[in-house]
Amino acid sequence: METKDDNLSAMCKPAVGEAGRTGDWRDATPVIDPTKCIASVKNRPACYLCWLYCPEGIVTAAVPVKIDLDYCKGCGICAEECPSKAITMVMHEEAVK
Amino acid sequence: MYEVIWHGRGGQGVVIAAQILAEAAYLQGFKGVTSAPTFGPERRGAPLTASTRISDAPIRTFSQIEKADIAVVLDPSLFGVIDIVGSLKPKGWLIVNTLKKADEVDIHGCFNIAAADAAAIAIRFHLLKEGAPMVNTPMLGVLSRATGLVSRESLEKGLKWKLSGGASATNIAALRAAYEEASIRNHA
Amino acid sequence: MSNVQIITGNSAAAYGAKLAKVQVVSAYPITPSTSVTETIANWVERGELKAEYVRVESEHSVMTVCISASTVGARVFTSTSSHGLLYMHEQLHWAAGSRLPIVMCCINRGVGAPWSIFNDQQDSISQRDTGWIQIYCRDNQEILDSVIQAYRIAEEVYCPIMVCYDGFVLSHTMMPVDIPDADQVCQFLPPYKPHTILCPEDPRNINPVIFPWQRRDAEGVLRDGYMDMRWKLQHALEESRDVIVRTSRDYAELFGREHGGLLWSYRTDDAEVLIAGMGSIATEATTAADLLREQGIRAGVVGVRVYRPFPRAEVREAFRKAPAIVVFEKNISYGYEGALCADIKAALYGTGIDAPVHNFIAGLGGRDVKAGELADAVRSSLTAITAGKREQQTWLNCVTE
Hints:
The complex is a heterotrimer of chains A (97), B (188) and C (401).
Chain A lengths: L27 E5 L5 H5 L6 H5 L5 E2 L5 E2 L9 H5 L5 E5 H5 L1
Antiparallel strand pairs in A: 1-4, 2-3
Chain B lengths: L1 E8 L4 H15 L3 E6 L9 E9 L12 E6 L14 E10 L14 E5 L1 H7 L3 E2 L2 E2 L2 H12 L4 H11 L2 H17 L1 E3 L3
Parallel strand pairs in B: 1-4, 4-5, 5-6
Antiparallel strand pairs in B: 1-3, 2-3, 6-9, 7-8
Helix pairs in contact in B: 1-3, 1-4, 2-3, 3-5, 4-5
Chain C lengths: L3 E4 L1 H11 L4 E4 L6 H12 L6 E4 L3 H13 L4 E5 L1 H16 L5 E6 L13 H4 L7 E4 L3 H18 L3 E6 L8 E4 L3 H7 L26 E2 L5 E2 L2 H30 L7 E4 L6 E5 L2 H15 L4 E6 L1 E3 L3 H7 L6 E5 L9 H10 L8 E5 L9 H16 L4 E5 L6
Parallel strand pairs in C: 2-3, 2-4, 4-5, 5-7, 6-7, 12-13, 12-15, 15-16, 16-17
Antiparallel strand pairs in C: 1-8, 6-14, 9-10, 11-13
C-alpha cells in the first residue's frame, strides 16, 4: 500500500496550545466580576463581546464566562471591550494571591 | 572567545543588555564583539534569548551559541520553562535575578552562581518601563562583579555611550548598587 | 579619526545610504529588512538626511518609484527581502533594462511556501538573471562599504546593484563597524550623472516598444533593436568586473579597507581543500578552516563576493591548484544543484582544472550553520573523495529519508 507523506506541504491543525503555553507571557491577568458580567447577571447566554474580541480564542461563551489562563497573553482587549466593565486586568502577582 | 547567553522575556531589555555588554567590552579593548537577539519574531512576554560574544580578535562566527560561558537569567520564572542550565559550559557562571542569596539558590551543578535582587534595585532607582522594573542594567553589574570579564568602569562607559545624560546616571547608580549587593557561590 | 560603532547589518546599510547622500528612498518594509528604511525614515524626518522618502503600497511600486526617480537623475536607495524582492521581479528587469544605477539592499530571507522569515539566499539567487549586479557581504563593515562602493560602480556602468547580506545573521547581529567620514565619502563618490537628461524642451518617450530589428528614428539616428540592447546590458555587466575591482582598490586606498573586489580568499596558499561560499556562510567557513587546520587538514576559503557578473577568471585562478573543492550555499536550483556550485563548475570547464567538486546545501530557512558542522562536512567530503566520489550533493543537517 502506498504511504502518504504528512509533510508534503506544510500545514497544522487548529488545536489548543499549538504555539505552546502562552499564558506565561502574561503580565496582567483578566479577572471577571460576576456581579457585573451581563451573562452572569442575566443568568443566560448574553453579550459575549469578550468572546468575540479575544484574539486568542480562549474565552468560552458560557454562563459564567470562562477565560483559559493557560493561554491568555494578558492583552486586555476583553477588559477594554466589556460594556459593563466587568473585567479588570490585575498585575500577575496580585492575581496569584 | 567568551560566550554569554541572556535569558529573559520580550520587553525586559534582554537585547539591549547583550548590546551594552558588547559595547563595554569593545571599549575595554576587546577587538571582537558581537551581540544578537534570538533570530525571529519579537513578542512581548515570550521567552527569548540574546547573546554576546567577546574575543581578542574580530569574530568570524555568527551561529547560535551552543554552550555559554555565562548564562544571565533576567526572569527566574524561566527556569520552569526552558533548560537554562543545559546551555551552560561546565565551570561557567549562572547569573540570576532572584530574591535569594546565591547560597540559597536551589540549583546545583558544576557552575558558579551569582545572584542579586535586580528587580528591587531597579525599583529603588526608578528604572521602570510601563510599570515593570528594568532589571537588565543591574544584571550587568552582577555579571561584572562575578566574572570580571568586563569591568564596572567599562560598563559605565558603555552606558554613557548608549544612553542620554539623565538616563545614564540612574542606570550607572543601579549598576553600582547591583555590583555591591551581588552574592556569589563558587562551584565545589 | 576612526568612528567605530557597534551596529547591526541593517544600521550599517542605512549609514551607507546616508553617507552616499541618497536623494530618494522608497520602501515597503518587510522582515528582516525593516530597520534599514525605518532608520533612514527617521533621519529624513529629523532633517539629518536631505532625501525624499516615498511611501507606497507594494514593493512593485517601490521599484517603480526608484526607476522614475533614478531616470530623472536622483540617487535612489531601497531595501527589501524575500517575497518583497520577488514582488519586484518584473520591475527589476525594467530597472536593469533602463540602465539605471539603483542600489538596493537585499536582506536575504527564505521564500514561501511554507512561510519562513528566516535566512537563506533563495530570494536574491532567484533574481540572478534580471541584469542586476549582485554583491554578497560577509560582515557588517562590508555592508556599509559595499553600499558606498555600489553607487560608484552602478553610476559608472549604468547598471543597478543588489547589495545582499544574510537576514538576521548579519542584519540583526551587532558588531564593530567603522563609519567613514562624510567628506571623505564625498571625495570618493562623485555626483550621479544620468545617461539621459530629461527636460520639457527636449522630450523623450522612455522605453517604447522596440522591434526585433534596428531602425532609423525620425532624426535619422540608427536605433538598436531589442536584441542589440540586450547584448549591451550583457556587455556592461561583463565589463563591470574591472570597475568593481578598481572601485574596491580605490576605496581601500582612501579608507584602508579592501573587501576583495570580486572574490576573496583565506588561507588558500597551501590548501589541500578549498571551501567556497557567499556571504556569512563563507565567514563561518573561515572559522571552519581554522578548525580543520588544527586537526591537520590544510583548508582554505574562497569567498565569492560578486556573484553577477560571475568572476570567471578569478574563480579559475583561485581554484587552479585546488585538489578538492567543497561549495556551501544557502540556495538550491531545484532539479539541479546549488547555483554557486553549478557556476563554479561551469567556470572550470575546459581549463584542465579537474578537482572533485562537492556541494552542500546548508542553512535553508534559517537552519543554524556552525563552523564545527562545516568542518565535519568538509572532512566527510574528503573521505568520499578519497574513495573516488568526484561529485556529491549533500543537504547539511537535513532529514533526507
